[in-house]
Amino acid sequence: MKTNPTFNQLGAALVALAAFTAGAPRLTASSHQDAPLIVLDPAANTTDVYAFRSNTGNEKYLTVALAVYPFEEPGIGPNKYNFDDNVLYKIWVGTGKDLAAGKSTVAYEFRFKTVYKNTNTIAQSYLGVINNVDDANQNLTQHYTVTKFSRTTGARGQVLFPGVDLLVPPNNQGLVTKFYNQGDNGNNKAKEGVATTAALDKYTAETSYTQASGPSYQVFAGQRDDGFYADIHSIFDLDFTFTGGNKPHDSQGGFNVHTIVLNIPVAELGGDQQVAGVYATTSRQRVRILKQVNEGTEQGGVQNASGFIQVGRQGNPLFCEGLVSIRDKDRYNQIPPDDDAEVFKNYALNPELATLLNAPVNLRTNRTDLAGIFIPDMIKIDLSTGPARLAGGSNAGAAPNDAGFNRLGIFGGGMNMAGGTANPDVLQSTIGQGFLGQGVQPGGWPNGRRFGDDVVDIAVLAIFSDLRNPMAPTLAKAPADPGVDKVDHNDIGYNKVFPYAATPHNGRNNVHP
Length: 513
Hints:
The structure is a single chain. The protein is an alpha+beta fold. About 15% of the residues lie in helices and about 25% in strands. The protein has helices spanning about 5-15, 95-100, 200-205, 230-235, 320, 325-335, 340-345, 345-350, 350-355, 370-375, 425-430, 455-465; strands at about 45-55, 60-70, 85-95, 105-115, 140-150, 160, 165-170, 210, 220-225, 255-265, 275-290, 300-315, 380, 415, 440. The strands form 3 sheets. Strands 3, 4, 5, 6, 7, 11, 12 and 13 form an 8-stranded antiparallel β-sheet that branches. Strands 1-2-10-9-8 form a 5-stranded antiparallel β-sheet. β8 (about 210) and β9 (about 220-225) form a beta hairpin. It starts with 6 loop residues before the first helix and ends in a 50-residue tail after the last helix. Mean pLDDT is about 80; it is low at about 1-30, about 415-440 and about 470-480.
């Protein structure tokens, strides 16, 4: 049986949450503060992971992205939000039996090194207008390496982009980073997303790299707009009707994050007739020694020793925040997804959130469809899906959405054809029991996750939709805009070309909705 939620049913269910107070912080949403310990370590705090199919020319890619460092306030000085040299950032991809077991087949490791040109100044990041990345006026520059590990190479990693000095562009301060901003004027707002590579701002274009020899990997790492949008404040203010303000409130609006984006050639993963799973982790070294300066005879600082230990993990949006109880949230960040079936599966099968939302009784238990999405907690994407239909933006100057893009994916009717392959086993395994009809796949999460997918609305609609019948002739659908949280687009347009994430907000001219 399938239950088709109406707008009124959803509204009534959300109102019912208002009676639930003591445990409200564990309800739902990617608040970027999903577990108690990681909140204390913003540079290692993963905010979102994205994974979707894309094409550049004739090359088929799996695009993966990891965002960290939540709530970067643009209007601050010094603007010292950066990747941490002491954090190991890693994106993992599993295929075949590895995916089913929650293991990785390949992994991509990112290590950063921060360099100052002048330490005899209080101007930490900028010495003047930056005309090109890493010129004399960019005082603080981060360099990084990308290393691929696979089961076949074991501990012997393969350095990607050999011989290339991979650079992180400057943060968007305003006047000194004028090329991020409209009219190349630091007094103006950040530029909206573009539809062609030639139209990218100078800093982003100069730090988007394509491997020149061998597989044509592409990489970018730097400050970006926070691409997640939702009215998180109302949820934690116990306003589950989302009517407390005069207008929809994007709680992440106007804030930046630091984002790593990697284009992986599909051929490197063994071709497109398979499903891949993606997640990301952050790790720190187990032992950290703080050295004190002693009468000028000993240099102080930090010394790291021993191996790395995982401190953060992110797969699908909303799992740790919305389904895992407080007692297991920190544990989630510290273990790999191959333990999910044993430790966390019950949270997906019998989600407390369904009861709190007053979902029909038959949708509160044995949710094998939700377990197919979240267990193991890797974003699952059918690589035979055609290139994702991408979001642009609704603001003036932004590139328009692709024809057929729908922020609600399957619930809004956004579909991608299977490129003529339509392998039933591949399609059905995309999300376990299956959201899929014959020969079509959802255009966004939970078949991958694009920049622009309205994941909060999708999650609520999924809880109210019985998707356990993989042979259902039609999909459960909601009205074109069910208005769950009344926030239906990002505050700045996304780029529709690599690196896809939107321009970071300007610290000089920026507002929070």
